[in-house]
Design brief:
211 residues; 2 helices; 14 strands; elongated
């Protein structure tokens, strides 16, 4: 084997070993096992901004005891869905250390400008937390990093799928639910005018003004 081939083979082995060292999840004993977002509680959170990897974002804000979409005229949000996600968020810990190097952030998709999800949390006392969720190396697991820290961790408690930027994931899409048998008249107003539908004695719907 030529000398150059030996050198290239040696370089390749070093790169593989370095990659394994940087990205291989450390054992739980190597992490601190402390809360990733210390001091945060479900009741203290009053706002959430979630941004995905396409740049799309959604804002959730607390109004009294309820949650709303402030950018959609305070449309009501399912509080149970928000609280469930917050409990997962608060449960994140530093028990499974993956890397301490900034160079690993982009490959793991937990960088400030390259991520799967960016979660910005505002609290009632004016504090703010920013968390990045990244790639999923296995089913039910995801990389995470707290803004301002080099360390990235692996968690099975929260993934990008749990924090959607689609409004339909946070609201009751059935705005109004009524049995069709109970309706006898429906009025629809739009840019084309007003349309009145009535139910005749035989149960057929008729549009007013149309013979």
């Amino acid at each position: 084997m030529k000398r150059i081939h030996v050198i290239l083979a040696g370089v390749l082995v070093v790169q593989i070993a370095l990659g394994a060292f940087v990205y291989w999840p450390r054992s739980r004993a190597q992490g601190a096992g402390e809360p990733a977002l210390p001091g945060l509680s479900v009741d203290s959170v009053v706002s959430l901004t979630i941004t995905d990897d396409t740049g799309k974002s959604i804002v959730l804000r607390k109004a009294g005891d309820a949650w709303v979409l402030p950018e959609a005229d305070d449309y009501p949000v399912l509080s149970d869905s928000v609280n469930s996600m917050l409990e997962k968020l608060i449960g994140l810990d530093t028990g499974r250390l993956v890397t301490r190097t900034e160079a690993s952030h982009k490959p793991l998709k937990v960088a400030d400008d390259e991520f799967m999800r960016k979660i910005e949390v505002g609290t009632v006392d004016g504090q703010s937390y920013v968390l990045f969720l990244g790639t999923s190396p296995s089913y039910g697991a995801a990389h995470l990093r707290v803004a301002g820290q080099d360390e990235a961790y692996l968690t099975s408690k929260l993934s990008a799928w749990d924090v959607s930027t689609a409004a339909s994931s946070w609201v009751d899409t059935a705005y109004l639910s009524r049995s069709s048998d109970s309706l006898t008249k429906v009025t629809l107003d739009n840019a084309n005018g007003s349309f009145v539908f009535t139910k005749d004695p035989d149960g057929n719907w008729v549009l007013a003004g149309v013979d």
